[in-house]
Design goal:
nine-stranded antiparallel β-sheet; 383 residues; 12 helices
Length: 383
């Protein structure tokens, strides 16, 4: 708001801006805590038997529950943050009308578009927190997020065999150790193509996943393996991939099939940072379907912050609709439109899943479609 005394100068953040931003933050935090509290109550009662089986008494059980759900709170924020961002913005505008605060502000010459500034700032801040959570926090707690409630050991029998298509090596095993990132009862099958002259299985008591480094390629370090390296019918290319390990009686197998590709493969890439995800999409070692799913998820992640803001801007004209005095009707129309948006966005995803659209088109087309709709519907904002 301006006055003649300050020559039309408007502070960067006015009292009204701080009031609306504070209300936005309050609605967002209350909504998030309420939803996570509901999730916590339902999930903890579902898994209470697993926690009660833990040895050590009540203190250990309570500690494990707090640790387990503290990690889950980060994942929950990543999944629900975008929706809460929009709900908080719509609720802030609805409360502004409910308490009769909108009309005095409009009468003072402050436009509705100007009122959106603190709400958009709040949405941008939440978007930034979602990105930081995804890029910095989730990759570091990926192990804890993949463990089941009340786990007493780090092993799982849920091994999903994988094929390195660039090296023609199939990797399987009996079980995985999540904490050690190792494969117990490992079996590496050297297919009769590029890596070996005949089909040759290599078994090992344990294979530990080796992360790539400046001087170290990705691969697996096998211990207790057979047959010996000298008995393997390797091709010249195979000898560049399979060689003695850094320790006695170990064998190093170079492959881009990492530990997480053998465990919950369809969802494990959700715990990767964007840089790691881009590297994986560009890797020729994975099968076509896996690469397509990861490519779709990558584009969805890149477009998600933009889509959150677009959804917010689409909903605004229906909450503060011109020539409408019924707040309940406005909220109902807004919810209906956002429901249609969600359905259309899901339809784009399914079209990409069935190869009827490219991942790029399925991720970016909704932004173009609904961005144009937001611009058109802004003409109906109450002024």
């Amino acid at each position: 708001m301006t006055s003649s005394g300050n020559l039309g100068y408007e502070p960067v953040m006015t009292l009204l801006d701080r009031y609306l931003l504070g209300r936005y933050a309050y609605v967002f935090l209350v909504g998030y805590v309420a939803l996570f509290g509901l999730y916590f109550v339902i999930d903890v009662f579902t898994n209470v038997g697993d926690f009660l089986d833990l040895p050590g008494g009540l203190g250990v059980i309570v500690t494990e529950i707090l640790k387990y759900y503290s990690y889950r709170s980060c994942a929950f924020f990543g999944s629900i943050g975008g929706s809460m961002l929009v709900i908080a913005g719509m609720t802030t505008l609805a409360l502004l009308q409910k308490y009769g605060e909108l009309y005095p502000v409009l009468a003072a010459g402050v436009s509705t578009i100007r009122l959106l500034r603190p709400i958009v700032i709040g949405a941008v801040v939440v978007n930034g927190l979602i990105v930081l959570n995804q890029e910095l926090v989730i990759p570091r707690i990926a192990l804890q997020l993949q463990q089941d409630a009340g786990h007493q050991n780090d092993a799982t029998f849920n091994v999903e065999p994988a094929i390195d298509f660039s090296a023609d090596i199939t990797i399987a095993g009996q079980r995985l150790n999540l904490r050690k990132r190792s494969l117990e009862g490992a079996e590496f099958v050297l297919r009769e193509t590029r890596v070996a002259t005949v089909l040759t299985p290599v078994t090992a008591k344990e294979a530990v996943s080796i992360e790539p480094g400046p001087d170290q390629p990705a691969g697996w370090l096998l211990s207790g393996f057979k047959p010996p390296l000298t008995d393997l019918p390797l091709t010249e290319f195979g000898r560049t991939l399979i060689r003695p390990g850094p320790e006695p009686d170990t064998l190093f197998v170079r492959t881009d099939i990492t530990f997480d590709q053998l465990y919950r493969r369809d969802s494990s890439f959700e715990y990767l940072s964007t840089r790691e995800l881009i590297n994986r999409v560009q890797n020729p070692s994975y099968n076509y379907q896996s690469l397509r799913s990861q490519s779709m998820y990558l584009h969805s992640r890149l477009t998600k912050p933009i889509m959150n803001l677009v959804v917010l801007l689409v909903g605004v004209p229906f909450i503060v609709r011109k020539e409408s005095s019924s707040l309940l009707k406005n909220v109902g129309m807004c919810a209906s439109v956002l429901g249609v948006m969600f359905g259309c966005n899901e339809a784009f995803g399914y079209l990409a899943k069935f190869n009827l659209l490219t991942p790029e088109s399925a991720a970016w087309a909704p932004i173009i479609l609904w961005g144009g709709f937001a611009a058109w519907s802004s003409l109906n904002i109450k002024t």
